[in-house]
Amino acid sequence: MSQRVLVTGGSGFVGSSLALAMKRDHPEWRVTSLDNLKRRGSELILNRLRAGGVDFLHGDIRQPEDLAAAGPCDLLVECSAEPSVHAGYGASPAYLVNTNLVGTLNCLEHCRVHGATVVFLSSSRIYPIAGLCALPLVNEGDRLVLGQEAAGRGWSRAGIAEDFPLEGSRSLYGATKLASELILEEYRAMYGLKAVINRCGVLAGPWQMGKVDQGFMVLWAARHSYGGALSYMGFGGKGHQVRDVLHVDDLYDLVMMQLADIGRHDGVVYNVGGGAAISTSLAELTGLCQRVTGRTIAIGETPETRAADVPWYISDCAKVTAATGWRSRRSLEHIVEDVSVWLRDNRPMLEPILGA
Ligand SMILES: NC(=O)c1ccc[n+]([C@@H]2O[C@H](COP(=O)([O-])OP(=O)(O)OC[C@H]3O[C@@H](n4cnc5c(N)ncnc54)[C@H](O)[C@@H]3O)[C@@H](O)[C@H]2O)c1
To answer: pTM of this prediction?
Structure first.
């Protein structure tokens, strides 16, 4: 198993969670977080990294010299990104493309030079928007569902599988992730790089700096905890759109299983998420946040759908479960409670960032 681990984006939500858990479980490993602290709130994680024995290097993956300064590694976990699917709409796509595509390529180069294995955090957003919007959904209570018998290539009530058709546009965010997957495949073929690709649905947990365009679970819990406005955006403004949610600790469990048997998972692409059992609509999430926090807040309705929004996404995890035995264990209630306790215990530090 690897001993020198470089986690790019290692002061963000996923990167810091994985880095700290690796160091906790393998104190003999040297774990380094490299991050340019672009995400607001990532700076709050630095003390946590220090306390957990993770080294921090201020650096930018757009700059190969910054990666070189991190030195050789055996494993690179690529968690740095502009993570919002809405990035670039109505604005320059430069940061998004230079980080998520060019920066990822720089990370692969670093791995080629040092013979390091890669864990790549891809996204459910590689699946095209029009294809997801065309699913035959109907309202059932406070959520959209697929009809009982409805199924097609790569989709069913169990969710979206890896063979969902890829034709069509997917946002520049999704395109940078899919393009990175393709380049990663070439690095495997040409240079023998070992890599595992996880196409993640929504991830959540403490230390996620949720905002309107990314991290809705934490945003919802934060507004219920600290007060402030929320709005159901898109699809008529009723909050019936559905996502599955995965606790970041469940992701960590999976990554460690994959690394323990990298020969088997090398080059394999997996859809990874909470699955149908751990999914929620926004309206259902409101009810859960009300129960957990004991607070009700006003929620507005914005009927217009933004360009990159999709009404329903659930990860069909059958492939990863068959390959590893892994399945998501932490329930939605657990996730909301975990996040709410974190919001309560760290209020003075978090409210300036996560408050209204
Ligand atoms: N959170 C989710 O729901 C989710 C779902 C699917 C995929 N992902 C992917 O997982 C990865 C981690 O996401 P996250 O939720 O932790 O996001 P995050 O914003 O919390 O973390 C990303 C980190 O990368 C850093 N960063 C941004 N640009 C950088 C650059 N040029 N150089 C160095 N560091 C840079 C940011 O400062 C931040 O700390 C991303 O690749 C994201 O696309 C996340």
So the answer is: 0.98
